Amino acid sequence: MKVAYWYNNKDIRIQEIPTPKPKSREMLVKVISCGICGSDIVEWYRLPRAPLVQGHEIGAQVVKVGKSVKKYKSGDRVFIAPKVPCMKCYYCQNGHYPQCPEVKVRLPGGFAEYILVPEMLIENGTYLLSDNITYDQSTFIEPLACVVRAQRLAGVKKGQTVLVIGCGMSGLLNIKLAWTRGCKIIAADINKTKLEIAKQMGADITLDAADDIAKRLAEENGRKADIVLLCASADAAVEQAWKCVDKGGVVVLFAVPAPDKKVVVPVNDFWMKEITILTSYYCGPPDIIEAMKFIEWRSVTVDDLITHRLPLIDIAKGFQLVADGRESIKVIIKPND
Ligand SMILES: [Zn+2]
Ligand SMILES: [Zn+2]
C-alpha cells in the first residue's frame, strides 16, 4: 500500500510498504477521506516526531477484522479518533481528556491507503458513521470536536458577542458553531477573501485585521466582545485579542504563537476587568459525540468548507495549499482514488 511520510512541509515522500494484516484484536480500515489539518503544517509542533505519517481527520471503511473483534465488521463506515483517553485517571475524571497521561497508542496516520487500528482504539476510539454522514464530512468530526470543546470551556451562549480572529478552517468552524448558538459574530482577518467567506458562513460584521480592530469593534458593535476566539498564531493577532475583550469576558487561545515567542499579558488590567484567559487543546469523547450530531443534523454544515480533493500522490500540493492558505479552506486527501 502507499503511505505518505512527512519530513517537513516541503518534503513529503510517498512510499510503498506491505499492507498490514490485522492480528486477532486489530482491524484494517481503508482510508476513503483524510483532511489536512492546520496543525499538520505547524513544523515546530510536528517535526519532533518526523518522519511520520500524518493525517488524523479520517473517514474510513472497515475491510478486515481480527478474530476477536466483535464490535465492527467488514463494510462498516467509521471515524476513528487519533488517540483515546483512559476515562479513569484523575484528569479524565475531571474532564481534562486531552491531558490523560495514559494515552499510549496513537492511530497510525491517515495519509495512507489503509490503517491498522490497534485494540485500544477499536474499543474506545471508533465511532460508526450514520448514513447521513459522508466520508468527506467525517473528516470534520475531529476539528469540529475541538471547536465544540473550546466553546464549551468558554461558556459561549446565545446573545453574546463573539469575535473570531483568523478565518482559516478553525476560525470558520468557530463561526459556524457560534452561529448555531445564536451569537452575534464578528470576524477579523488580514485576508479579504476569507472575510467574504466568513460573512457567508454567518459573521454579522467583518473587520480587516490590518486595522485597529479594537477601535473598529467599538465603532461597529458599540462595545467589545464577550468572547474572543483566537484562531491565528501571529504575534499581532494575540495583541489584538487582548484589546478586543470586554469586561468580564473570555479570551480563548485556540491557536498560539510558536514556543519561542514571548507573549505579554496585561494581567493588571485583566484583573480589574475580571477577564479570563482560556486555552483549549484537542478534544475528548463527549466533544466527538457532540460534533458528530452537529454534522449529522446539519446544524453545522461542512461541505461548503471543502475546496480541494486530491489523490495521495498529490499530497505535497495539498500541504502547499494549506500552508499558503489563500486559495484553500479544507483540503481532503483521497488515498484510494
Ligand atoms: Zn485536526
Ligand atoms: Zn485518563
Structural description of this entry:
With 337 residues, the protein is of the alpha/beta class. It has two domains: 2-140 and 302-334, Quinone Oxidoreductase, Chain A, domain 1 (Alpha-Beta Complex); 146-279, Rossmann fold (3-Layer(aba) Sandwich), CATH 3.40.50.720. The protein has twelve helices and 15 strands. The protein has helices spanning 43-46, 90-93, 119-124, 135-138, 141-154, 169-180, 192-200, 213-221, 235-244, 267-273, 285-296, 315-324; strands at 2-8, 11-16, 27-35, 57-65, 77-80, 114-117, 126-128, 161-165, 184-189, 205-208, 225-230, 245-253, 276-279, 306-311, 330-334. The strands form three sheets. Strands 3, 4, 5, 6, 7, 14 and 15 form a seven-stranded mixed β-sheet that branches. It has a six-stranded parallel β-sheet with strand order 10-9-8-11-12-13, sandwiched between helices. The protein has a two-stranded antiparallel ribbon with strand order 1-2. Helix 10 links the parallel strand 12 and strand 13 (276-279). Helix 5 (141-154) packs across helix 11. The protein is globular, with a radius of gyration of 20 Å. The mean pLDDT is 96. Residues 37, 39, 56-57, 142-143 line the site of one zinc ion.
Features:
single chain; 337 residues; alpha/beta; Quinone Oxidoreductase, Chain A, domain 1; Rossmann fold; 2 domains; 7-stranded mixed β-sheet; 6-stranded parallel β-sheet; 12 helices; 15 strands; binds zinc ion
The CATH architecture term of the largest domain is Alpha-Beta Complex
The name of the CATH topology of the largest domain is Quinone Oxidoreductase, Chain A, domain 1
Q: Please, what is the CATH homologous superfamily of the largest domain?
A: Medium-chain alcohol dehydrogenases, catalytic domain
Helix content: 25-40%
Low-confidence stretches: none
Distance between the first and last residues' Cα: 13 Å
- The first-level CATH class of the largest domain is given as Alpha Beta
